[in-house]
Amino acid sequence: MNKYVKRYLIDAMSGMAQGLFASLLIGTIIKTLGQQLMRLNENVFFKFFVDAGNFATEAHVVGAAMAVGIGFAMHVPNLVLFSLAAVGAAANVTGGAGGPLAVLFIAIIAAELGNLVSGKTKVDIIVTPLVTILVGALLTVLTAKWIGLGASSVGKFVVWATKLHPFWMGCIVSVVIGLALTLPISSAAICAAFGLTGLAGGAAVAGCCAQMVGFAVASFRENKWNGVLSQGLGTSMLQMPNIIKNPRIWIAPTLSSLITGPLATCVFKLEMNGAAVSSGMGTCGLVGPIGMITGWFEPSEVAIMHGATAIHPGALEWIGMILICFVLPAALTFGFDLLFRKIGWVKEGDQKLN
């Protein structure tokens, strides 16, 4: 059971998130950069950035990247891996707003069945891609639309519930997505699968930043600046071995997320309307804050479906983003961690990275 949980819920989802990052996410950043530069001076070079971003964010390209990422993470044979590009493209386009979840489900099954026949015949170059693509195509026709609708409905419900009850949903979304970020599963893939944008996306960013910036600051005495960079710009998942040894070290950043989540939704009304995958990235490569900024100027298709429109950010938005993503996670987690060290819940060396 542990083997399959790791293969399908950890490895495959991580590969999917990397595929999203290498297509939709980076494409959105490139496109937005080009658009902002063109406001200053319209020329061919800046337009190239916009075109390059458009190429990378096409639904079939994103689907192919996700499926190949999934196959790569599952260590499938090359012919299966390459065939998954077609499977992912079809599943993502057919799945619509919930396409990422459809890609995850369909690509895993197509990859496993392709893997079963790989190397079993003398005409492997025909049989393996044939089985992989036909299985993926059949599953796409039968299930992708419904998986996509289901995922989209869940996402719409969370977005709607967060608007209706911003305090409680701000707490819940921030804590849950933040915990998922530190666990060896992909919070980015979860946010992408369910299309978390708007206030819900803002709460998710808050929770992820609380974990990453929080651990980076709380463990500074043990890990110094290398720890700040590896956790604050990399991933708080590095602390998982230490959390297993002493789960109490996880309380400080989680309490911080419990505070910053509702502050994001109720006080600053901070929305993340960029690519939904950004909601689950936190400060990893500064993707969460960048997603907020790109969403202000040009909301993603999923965000527009949830009612988002472009805005000209004012002082409240900028101050809110800086406080929620950086200042408050650092200050709150440092304070909580200091308290827990004084009462003996956390000891020197508990958060030391190997």
Plain-language structure description:
- With 354 residues, the protein is mainly α.
- It has 15 helices and no strands.
- It folds into two domains: 2-154, no CATH class; 165-342, no CATH class.
- The protein is globular.
SSE layout and pairing:
Blueprint: H1 2-40, H2 44-57, H3 59-73, H4 78-95, H5 99-117, H6 124-164, H7 166-182, H8 187-194, H9 198-218, H10 220-232, H11 240-245, H12 251-267, H13 287-297, H14 301-305, H15 315-342
Helix pairs in contact: 1-2, 1-3, 1-8, 1-13, 3-4, 3-5, 4-5, 4-6, 5-6, 5-8, 6-7, 6-9, 7-8, 7-9, 7-12, 9-10, 9-12, 9-15, 12-15
Mean pLDDT rating: 91
Backbone shape: globular
Largest sheet: none
Query: What is the number of E strands?
Result: 0
Euclidean distance between termini CA atoms: 28 Å
Provide the number of structural domains.
2
Structural class: mainly alpha
With helices defined by DSSP (H or I, 4 residues minimum), what is the helix count?
15
Q: In which range does the helix fraction lie?
A: over 70%
Q: Extract low-pLDDT stretches.
A: none
Features:
354 residues, 15 helices, mainly alpha, single chain, 2 domains, globular
Brief rundown of the structure:
The chain has 354 residues and is mostly helical. It has helices spanning 2-40, 44-57, 59-73, 78-95, 99-117, 124-164, 166-182, 187-194, 198-218, 220-232, 240-245, 251-267, 287-297, 301-305, 315-342.
